[in-house]
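Human: My hope is that you can spare some time for a protein that puzzles me. I am handing you a single protein, as its sequence and its fold in token form. Could you go through the record with me and say what the backbone is doing? Take your time, and here it is.
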Amino acid sequence: MKKIILNCVPPFACNMPSPAMSILKSWLTKNGYDSSVIYWNMHLYKLQSDFVWNKPSTFETSSQLGLYVNYMLNKSKDSFLINCFKKIIQCSSPRYLTDDPLYYDMHMAKFADKMDDVIDTILSEIDFSETLMFGFSLKMDGWIFSSIVAEKVKKIAPEIPILVGGISTKEKAKSLLENFTQFDMAMWGEGEEPLVKVVEMLKEGKNNYSELINTAYRSQEGVLFSENKNNYYIDLSEQDMYPDYSDYFKQKKKLKLDIESILPIEGSRGCHWNKCKFCYLNSDYRYRVKSCVKICAEIKYMMNKFQLFSFEFLDNDFIGADLNKANLLIDNLILLKKEEPRFKIVIAEVITKGLNHSIIKRMFDAGIIFVQIGYESTSHKLLRKIRKKNTFASNLFYVKIASLYKIPLGNVNVLVNMPDETIEDILESIDNLRFLRFFLNPIYFKHMLIPVQVDSSSRYYLEVKNKTSGWTPSALAYDFLQNYILEKDHWIIFDYVKQSRHYQWETFKNIERYYLENKHTYSIKKESGTIEYLEYINGRKISEFNFCEDSVDWLILCYANDMVVSLQDLYIYMRCYLSNNSIDKKKLQSAVEDLMRRGLIYHTPDFSEIVSIINTSMI
């Protein structure tokens, strides 16, 4: 039986098996087909690093994609672009600028030749007479390297079909075929069943491309689309199928790569929210969740098989749409952690809305080291406009609890230049930094301003397509590769950003810097039924408040301590707590407003979310 050659390409990281290729390999095996995965990223790992002299670069192009951009420019013989790119490379190691100025030209040419040698050597080991097809994933700029290898394959064996996937929309699939003649078919959306249909067709020697699923293909009339949509989505909980990571570990061993590997876990696929205006990553992916039993069984299987204990959850939201299921999973992961203390989850992504103190703490107990929370903004209004499920209040609460347990969040992204952004949103973002004053920390938690990325599949595209002035390609690599792509397809294949931002974002950065450089702390102590609150900057007392233990103010702070609550929740609680039921809702609202003025509470304008900034459990 002829073999399917799957390809994991740069810039995919080398410390993890490809989730997509590993599950596709298992699915092909289940359907009776032989396949293998070539990890080009590992084969080129050392060369990629040597190209930038084994040190981080100021420019992302030269550190991640530079080797491959250099190769394409070298083959193009475009002297102007080669010279432009040379300046970027010179930044990585400027020491040759004066004593050997021709060094960089030789360096770039030499590494293009070395890359040729690596690719040619790997391809020479393939028996093309026993190869049914090649498959590439073009996600995360994979099209750059894939186009290079595919072109070489076509020169060796032009009759072998090349299928590309990892594509979000049919329009992008069409554009990729129109721009790269070395690709024969392009598939969008989920790949398991559509891939099997392609393999079945090729095995039977047919050319009924129109009957494929979610696939663009070439014909005499140009690029056409198959007639069938994907109506079959694999069951993630299927007990007898695990991702096949064998090719990854075989090649890692053969190449003697000294890299600490982590294993991916797909706890769910798609996004249960899928409403964020800036996101375009979940097109044609149906949301569903893998069962808790299957997740834990898979983790145990992988730990036993590979003696590796570090995992990464790939989910858009580790918690998901069902809190009961999430609690069950967390409980089982805690048990697994007790059975195998080396087990850890190095990263997971979480939507913070609806989380309470108990869930967050138990996530850490389950071995989660780092959580990405989809933060995006410190403006409540802007988060609503861009349709995030997270809110500033829910993010603030998560930051508070993570800070309590010294769990780092690192640099969290604040998106700027969104089409919805107004000066009022920026000013609110600045004001809300005050409520983060106890948690901002140069190591554990700070903000990074990131321009929003837009392409033709983004919900934002309709808002910017007629006013694209000021929008530039998001990656420096794209600047050097624009000539490879038809101009009409630039917004389809490239992501774009608007680099210039409103001057008030500099105010945001400066005020955040003040909080980062000046440590804000507080103390709470109780004596004779009185709560004393003291606040300090760099150890100097700046404010003092006293509360009676049974005062409305203190009860508000306590009730909003371990979860985000609403004014209605608070009102019901107060009526139950106060024996005479004497609380007035307007007075309760005034008390909340006063606590916010003092910087102890944050509430939304409609009082639907209220959260205590301080930890009342300290006493």
